[in-house]
Design a protein that fits this description.
16 helices; 7-stranded mixed sheet; 2 domains; alpha/beta; 13 strands; 509 residues; 4-stranded antiparallel sheet; Growth Hormone, Chain: A; 18% strand
């Protein structure tokens, strides 16, 4: 179970955390277990493999495969960048996930053979082994999922786990009176593998642009977080330094390096101008921090701002690298849906910055969630939802379903695109209890957005194909299905960019 969880998390910087990645992980895991169970049962029929010592050797080899997973995974995923999305996804997992799970699958039937004295006891032996195995899977999944991965990331804990398994296997071999020379050679080999695995974690498998400098990188709950400083160009041609936050290599936010609270993303700037022109608002709730740029906008307006973020690293990075005010007393590290279900507070503004890249919090975009948010808003309150990085707005299947769900919850909806077109850009849903008076708002001249009345940025709700739109509920929330073409296009575009960077690096060597 830990290996499966690790396999899915290792995929995210290259293939994302979408339905595709999880489906592939589950399929390859089940395939490996099926093959492992069959082959493990088969080898017990061969005389030379009937010794209990062979079980330990398989256990040892599986530990080595786990130990090498982070290194082999990152290596092979870079080699498959030129493949199609699905080919790269499946081939990568067959190479780095299949072997350790296959070996682990072999172990159960081999142990069952060793402890079964008579045919009458075979059922009880099998039941005991699978019960113990499943119990261990539950325990370690909880430990890694709730404790180790959020705190220490993915690669290093998995390497340590692989070392622990191999050392334990060596101890069992010594107990089985394996020669000291053989055990010593195996131990030395494991030390070498461990050294290689640890050293490779410091190498830049990150594929940074030539003009980028890595500030920090870590693995955890949302996958890979990466902060870089890069030289960019102003529309007038002047170069400037920016700081960029990416989640699984997907842009989350970027700012001026010298003014890290000022975002260069379209939707943040559009939201900023809207909020600055609103009648006085006193309280706001921001779910999804994104390095703190929107928090800074709200705080600069003198509001009492509460924030909710599921990954503590986002908060810490916002404070350390993006100039966000340290507001631990008003920040909650938890799931956004859990927060709104358990709070009894009311707000003037609620912002859901949770539909970006592939880390989409679908549980927040349902009828039940919107109904609770409706109750949390004051009479003249406003809900703002951002859906960014769209390459083909007309083909987006999520937008009309979100509109229908918001309407069912009682909201009136206005939709804007900060890039003022109907083809690509960022979508902002403005949901209010009363009519949103868009004629009162304008976008001032600036280098990020075209200036003009806000009405010019509006995309009519009727623009979208509502024939297949449906209300999203907790019971039927198919947000991953609605976004699957968006996920695929996003990843294919990113993989092409990474391949270009890889080729540039290879040419420079």
């Amino acid at each position: 179970m830990v290996t499966e969880l690790t396999g899915a998390k290792l995929l995210t910087p290259y293939f994302g955390a979408s339905l595709y990645s999880w489906a592939a992980t589950l399929a390859i895991t089940l395939l490996a277990l099926m093959c492992g169970y069959y082959f493990g049962g088969y080898v017990t029929t061969l005389k030379k493999y009937k010794s209990s010592k062979n079980v330990i050797y398989v256990f040892l080899l599986s530990g080595m495969m786990v130990l090498l997973m982070p290194m082999t995974g990152k290596f092979i995923m870079q080699q498959t960048l030129s493949f199609s999305f699905f080919a790269g996804l499946i081939i990568s997992q067959i190479i780095f996930l299949f072997p350790p799970v296959f070996l682990m699958g072999m172990i159960s039937p081999m142990i069952i053979y060793q402890i079964t004295e008579t045919a009458e006891k075979s059922g009880r032996s099998a039941g005991n082994i699978y019960a113990i195995s499943t119990c261990g899977g539950i325990l370690f999944t909880l430990i890694f999922g709730f404790g180790i991965i959020p705190q220490y990331g993915i690669s290093i804990p998995v390497i340590v786990l692989g070392i622990a398994v191999t050392v334990f296997a060596l101890a069992l071999l010594v107990k089985q009176k394996t020669s000291v020379l053989k055990a010593g050679l195996l131990f030395a080999f494991i030390i070498v593998l461990s050294g290689i695995s640890f050293s490779k974690q410091t190498e830049e498998y990150l594929l940074l642009r030539p003009n980028a400098r890595l500030v920090t990188q870590s693995e955890g709950l949302l996958g890979e977080l990466q902060i870089t400083d890069e030289v960019m160009r102003h529309p007038n041609g002047q170069p400037f330094k920016s700081r960029i936050l990416k989640t699984n290599k997907i842009l989350q936010n970027y700012v001026f390096l010298d003014s890290p609270t000022i975002s260069l993303t379209y939707y943040v700037n559009f939201t900023k101008y809207l909020i600055e022109q609103m009648p006085e608002k006193k309280s706001a709730l921001l779910i999804g921090l994104g390095a703190g740029s929107i928090y800074a906008v709200l705080e600069n307006q003198g509001m009492d701002v509460e924030t909710v973020e599921i990954d503590k690293r986002i908060y810490d990075y916002g404070v350390e690298y993006f100039g966000m005010k340290d507001h631990k007393e008003d920040n909650t590290i938890t799931d956004g849906r859990y927060f709104i279900n358990t709070t009894d507070k009311k707000y003037d503004i609620i912002i859901l910055d949770v539909i970006i890249g592939e880390n989409v919090a679908g549980q927040l975009v349902t009828l039940e969630s919107f109904q609770k948010i409706y109750e949390m808003l004051n009479k003249e309150g406003m809900l703002i939802i951002e859906h960014g990085g769209l390459q083909n707005i007309t083909e987006n299947k999520l937008i009309p379903s979100v509109v229908k769900t918001l309407e069912k919850a009682g909201f009136q909806i206005t939709i804007f695109n900060p890039l003022r077109n109907t083809s690509y850009g960022d979508i902002l849903f403005i949901a209010t209890k009363e009519r949103f008076e868009k004629e009162k708002y304008t976008i001032p001249p600036n280098f990020m957005l075209p200036a003009g009345p806000v009405s010019q940025f509006e995309i009519p709700v009727t623009f979208f194909d509502n024939k297949k739109a449906h209300v999203l509920t907790d019971d039927k929330n198919d947000i991953d299905i609605l976004l699957k073409s968006h996920y695929k296009a996003l990843r294919e575009r990113l993989r092409k960019e990474l391949l270009t960077i890889k080729k540039i690096k290879e040419q420079s060597l």
